[in-house]
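Please, structure for the following, as tokens.
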Amino acid sequence: MHTIVKHPLIDVKLSIMRDESTKSKEFRENLNEIASFMCFEVFKDLETYDANETYKTPTGVELHRKKLKQKIIIAPILRAGIGLCDGIKNMVPTARIGHIGMYRDETTLKPIEYYFKLPKVENPLVVIVDPMLATGGSAIAAIDACKKRGYNNVRLMCLVGVPEGLKAVEDAHPDVHVYLAALDEKLNDVGYIIPGLGDAGDRIFGTK
């Protein structure tokens, strides 16, 4: 189950991010803005309730404040996933943030979990975030890690993916809805998405 979040403003900002001459500051800004846009789709089915807290409008009408029924946890896959957090928090300031650390074993090429810390919240919606969905290995391992610890309401939000990575996640976790801003063509021989964005972590943090 997946959704490609299509919007002309996302397309414009994504084209800026794809440009190899785009610097880290502008790359980060556009990533955050796209993450904010994607929130409208990722969270569109959430329910609200009338809280006991009331407020008065400028016309003197007293209303109950609307709040989300669902507690939300944003779970970035370290390190590049951190780049989407501010954009989501701009739209959902009550969301809590956890962290999932993964690295790739050089021999087996499989993702290895080295860090996992999510807030203790009853029945939360966990949104795992990572800019790139390439082979799907890290995403599947992150979802596995969440479910192993009892976090079963999980969604995956990525910026750019490829069909093979998307299929791998959907085959492994058919109950997890995947949200992408773009579905690119393929992976190259060294595992980079084509046309892709390059190494998102390096471009976010300016480490290359």
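The first helix runs from residue 8 to 18. The mean pLDDT is 92.
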